Amino acid sequence: MVEMVSRPYERAFEKHALANPEVLCISADLTSSCEIDKFRDNHPDQFLSMGMAEQNMMSFCGGLGLAGYRPFIHTFGVFTYRRPYDQLMASIAYPRRKVRIMGFLPGITTPGGMTHQAIEDISVMRSMPNMTILETGDATEVESICEAADSIDGPVYCRVLRGSMPRLFDTPIKVGEMRELSLGNDVLIVTAGITTEEAMRATKALEAAGVSVRHLHLHTIKPFNAEAILDHINAVKGGVITLENHVTEGGIGSLVAEVMADNGVGKKLRRLGLKDTYAHGGSRAYLMRYYGLDALALTQGVEDLLGQKLGITETDLAEARVDAVHSLAKAEGL
Amino acid sequence: MWNIAVKNERTTEDIALGIRRRVFEHAMRNNGGYLSQACSSAEQLAWLYNEELNLGAPTLPMIPKPFEGVPHADNPDYHTGAGYNGPFEPEYDRLFIAPAHYALVAYATLIETGRMAAEGLEMFNKDGSSVEMIGAEHSPGMEVHNGTLGIGLSTAAGLAWARKRKGEKGRVWVYMSDGEVQEGQTWEAIQCCAHHRIDNVKAIMDVNRQQCDGAMDSVMEVGDIKTKMENFGAVVVEVDAHNVNDMREAAKTKHDGKPLIILANSNPFHAMPILEERFPRLHYVRFKSEEERARMNISIADSLGVDPIDYAH
Fold first, then answer.
1. Residue pairs spanning A and B at CB distance below 8 A
2. Which keywords belong to this entry (chain B) (predicted)?
């Protein structure tokens, strides 16, 4: 039974901020939505409301960084780079300010539709010199994200989960490493964030169908350890498949493709994710099914990769599903 | 070897004249330049550096070092050009030149106030030089990239809030241009300063009513800047940009809990009246012909009380 954890960020941030007086809690009018409302109420001296004005917020945080503070920006991920892209680049990324951008509601984890869904954030941040990218996939990673982010000598963008979530791992994020979740030799599955849980479910069904799965979970997306993943790519016979809560251009699928091309790896790669499309508003489970981001999409992708039908059905995956994961999860609100 | 900056060794008016002469000479030799910015802003920058700013002696070499790379994890020795404004001590002021396009005038100001050697201007816009055309972080006197207009005041607000929190006495000054009020970020920054009662920010804005495409009224009308800024929460004083006494008095204005913004109404042809021929395209004056270059050379030299520039050599 997977343990469900409620609001791990709220506790983790408070603990980290109180131990580090140079950390400032920055909010852009989404304070309770980013689980920092109690922090605001209990520690007003360390909290700064920037209002709905992200352009000013980015440059302002650049100024705070110049003075030696380490601001943690809290808002939805999408609001940290679409409107204030220039300010993010000029005031934070270029001068390597130690600004920690906590981007909530990554990908389709919000019913808010196109304006709220950060579906290309990794692509944008990967192409931004000096930016580090971390992503959380469970409660343990959310609990360790503040410390991990604050260890970076420069700016960092984090995809952060909120609300109720499973605890899949028992060790904190170690920046620069990747998690080896299974070490089979037929296919390599690479996931990050919420797609890892899907892949863990798919792995059980795939193994039952006779496919030996090697599964890696990425929490550090940039900088990326190409050599480590190359060893895993070389260890499988049947090819590589990536599944991401992001468009397939510029995210972890592209990352793996680049490593394979750079090293002349002659293996097949299937990149699953949002296929050059925006999403719309809906529940996470509905959107993951509709856009092919779930365990079923992954098993079908493996069938395509291997060129053989495995006969895995939705029922097989439902049985592999850990019931507690979704029965306790609240519907995502705004 | 070089003169360390000594405040008020020369009058601010004399420094302003020196700035215009240097920018004029540079523009003549290079067949163009940011001449009009020198007309409008010379007294403002001269006043800031010669009187108002509390700065320590420069910490960087009088002759600027070449470009040494951008900020990067692999470039640990990187530093900005802010050392020309002195060290980052708690008691000293900091300055952001928000319109980085005024760099040529700002560099001339550093020379005239003994903070940079005249050789620095010879490096302007040369490949491999740190003395860039649009002031970069690593350019003399610059501390951040302000080439995209509108981000300067926000950066200053963040630094000022932090300095207040740390109990530092030094203030944060911003040199602004009026075109920046077309950017929404400027208004976000003012309301933020007012909301957080950031009153150690002071700005002086060159209100020359010009922007890249021409006269601001023809590009995008901005209305009554003073009233708008006051409504967003700033204390605003209007002055004649060519009257140093006006600026001295304006800087004394009380502004508890609010940022102070001095609107310096300037003449984009001040001290170079022949430039009016080029209205409304004043942003970067590139001479259209040898005839024009020669004519402007004689006229501006006469206005500034110097000999025409022998730009053929």
1. 104
2. Thiamine pyrophosphate
Closest CA to A74 of A97, A112, A104, A38: A104
B71 and A CB contact within 8 Å: yes
Alpha helix (H) ranges present in A20-95? 37-42, 54-66, 85-87
Put simply, the answer to whether A63 touches B195 (Cβ < 8 Å) is no
pLDDT at position A326: 35
List the domain boundaries for chain A. Answer: 9-165, 178-321
Q: Is residue B4's pLDDT more than 80?
A: no
Nearest Cβ partner for B158 among A51, A61, A154: A61
Nearest 5°: the CA angle B193, B195, B197 is 60
Say whether residue B305 is in contact with chain A using an 8 A CB cutoff: no
According to the model, what pLDDT value does residue B7 have? 62
The torsion angle over the Cα atoms of residues A257, A269, A124 and B134, rounded to 10 degrees, is 30
Contact between B189 and A96 using a beta-carbon 8 Å cutoff: no
As a whole number of angstroms, the distance between CA B74 and CA B94 comes to: 27
Pairwise CB contact (< 8 Å): A63 & B154: yes
Evaluate whether the domain defined by B12-66+79-304 bears CATH number 3.40.50.970: yes
Bridge partners of residue A159, in order along the sequence: A103, A135
Q: Are A295 and A317 in contact (CB under 8 A)?
A: yes
Architecture per CATH, domain A178-321, reads as 3-Layer(aba) Sandwich (3.40)
Q: Does residue B91 have a pLDDT over 70?
A: yes
Closest alpha carbon within chain B to A153: B73
- Extract the tokens encoding A210: 């006779």
DSSP-based three-state secondary structure for A208: helix
- Per-residue pLDDT of B46-72, as tens digits, reads 999 999 999 999 999 999 999 999 999
The ipTM estimated for the assembled molecules is: 0.95
Residues of A in contact with B73 (CB under 8 A): 96, 130, 153-154
Residues of chain A with pLDDT under 70: 321-334
Burial (CB count within 10 angstroms: exposed 0-12, middle 13-18, buried 19+), residue A52: exposed
Q: Provide the pLDDT for residue B2.
A: 42
Confidence of residue B118 (pLDDT cuts 50, 70, 90): very high
Judged by CB atoms closer than 8 Å, whether chains meet at A91 and B154 is answered as yes
**Quick check: B151 and A69 CB within 8 A?**
no
Position A18 scores a pLDDT of 98
Angle at A224 between CA A234 and CA A135, to 5 degrees: 115
Mean pLDDT for the stretch of residues B124-142: 96
Q: Which of A50, A87, A154 sits opposite B151 (nearest CB)?
A: A87
Contact assessment for residue B81 and residue B140, using Cβ atoms and an 8 Å cutoff? yes
Domain boundaries in chain B? 12-66+79-304
Q: How much is the average pLDDT of B77-92? A: 97
The answer to whether the Cβ–Cβ distance between B161 and A94 falls below 8 Å is no
Check if B229 contacts A (Cβ < 8 Å): no
Enter the pTM of the model.
Answer: 0.95
pLDDT tens digits, one per residue of B185-228? 999 999 999 999 999 999 999 999 999 999 999 999 999 999 99
Q: Would the CB atoms of B150 and A55 count as touching at under 8 Å?
A: yes
| pLDDT value of position B3 | 45
Q: How many CB atoms lie within 10 A of CB A312?
A: 23
CA-closest candidate to residue A294, choices A192, A195, A191? A195
CA distance B101 to B105: 9
- Give the class (CATH, top level) of A9-165: alpha beta
Cβ proximity of B292 and B303 under 8 Å: no
